[in-house]
Design brief:
By secondary structure, the chain is mainly beta. About 5% of the residues lie in helices and about 25% in strands.
């Protein structure tokens, strides 16, 4: 899923767990994954690295069809700005990217000037 998550998708989030310091990153990608547990580090099946994840409260119910919990995972891919500052995302950011400083339990996260700006620097007059 993209950064266009709704608050109902996140209603049972209890905690955000960061594996890396989010202050060091301009953006993280976020996705809603299905996992077998409410808490703990979920399995990671993408290229790149997991930056963080959410944990759910005790009242979170599993999907009736799959028996799995829906939890957010925050990640970066090998070609993202932190690893390739002059690469594809030197300006702009992927659609699912948000500023990690705007993420909290039950808070979707937002795009900010920092997450979108890239290496563009204003010209001095």
């Amino acid at each position: 899923m993209s950064s266009l998550l709704s608050s109902s998708d996140l209603a049972h989030e209890d905690k955000v767990v960061w594996l890396e310091d989010p202050e060091e990153l301009d953006y993280v990608r976020q996705a809603l994954d299905k996992t077998p547990r409410r808490r703990g580090k979920p399995r990671y099946h993408r290229d790149g690295r997991m930056i963080g994840f959410t944990e759910l409260g005790d009242t979170a119910e599993a999907d009736p069809d799959s028996g799995l919990q829906k939890r957010r995972v925050f990640y970066l891919l090998p070609h993202d700005r932190d690893a390739e500052p002059h690469g594809l995302y030197r300006e702009g950011a992927p659609g699912e990217a948000v500023d990690p400083r705007t993420i909290g339990p039950r808070q979707v996260g937002r795009k900010t000037e920092r997450s979108q700006r890239g290496l563009s620097t204003p010209t001095v007059a």
